[in-house]
Amino acid sequence: MLTLKVAGLATFLSLFLGVAAAYALTKWRFPGRDLLDAVFTLPMVMPPTVLGYYLLVLIGRRSLLGGWLQETLGITLMFTWWGAVLASTVVALPLVFKSARAALESVAREYENAARTLGQGELAVFLRVSLPLALPGVLAGGMLAFARAMGEFGATLMVAGNLPGRTQTLSLAVYSAVQAGNDLLANSLVLVISLLCIVILWATSRLLQPKYTNR
After folding, report:
1. How far apart are CA 100 and CA 19, in angstroms?
2. SS3 95
3. Per-residue pLDDT tens for 82-117?
4. What is the rounded average pLDDT for all residues in the chain?
5. Which residues, at least 6 apart from 94, have a Cβ–Cβ distance to it below 8 Å?
6. Radius of gyration of the chain from Cα atoms?
7. Any residues with CB less than 8 A from the CB of 1 and at least 6 apart, and which?
């Protein structure tokens, strides 16, 4: 259940942040746009342990942000399941961002311009035209993000630790089972993760399949 809770929240945050960033970079032109694109894509190619280190520097108890959160709001992210959510969100975000950007770029400008000529504001154009037309691509990105968040290991281990019943997700449980020599448990968990990932990839492929094909 902890794995599903962490992956579900990480997917929700990735969808919110990834779609907003993709829409901004797709529709607006401003200095540094290509640099921001690289920043949002970076977690896709960077080693998870390096991402975990960056998060330690950002939200660690001795860091500026981490210290402020703890002293002012009483919030501690390190070695909590919220830390696992943060780490999973960072590694899953590029999957939503790239999928959403490709889907939004494929939306014909004529539909959006037609809505504007009818008096719709930018938010209404996004909610009523752009997002519905790009929805299959956005949902596919969300499903891939869920699978990635569910299997996240390196960054989660550095930020949230491996505490059974508190921060131990499925991938961390596999690591602990292998370390303990419990092959039966490790094989069972690996089988569960593999089957879930196969189902998600199959569903993603079906979602992106064109509804109408020329015969």
Report:
1. 6
2. helix
3. 988 999 999 999 999 999 999 999 888 888 888 888
4. 87
5. 18, 40, 41, 42, 43, 44
6. 20
7. none
Q: Give me the long-range contacts of 199-203 (CB less than 8 A, separation at least 24).
A: 200/143, 200/144, 200/146, 200/147, 201/147, 203/143
**In angstroms, rounded to a whole number, what is the distance separating the alpha carbons of residues 101 and 149?**
20
Which tens digits make up the pLDDT trace of 154-199? 888 888 888 888 888 888 889 889 989 999 999 998 998 889 888 8
pTM of the model: 0.84
The two tokens of residue 89 are: 């969100």
Tokens representing 95 are 């999957």
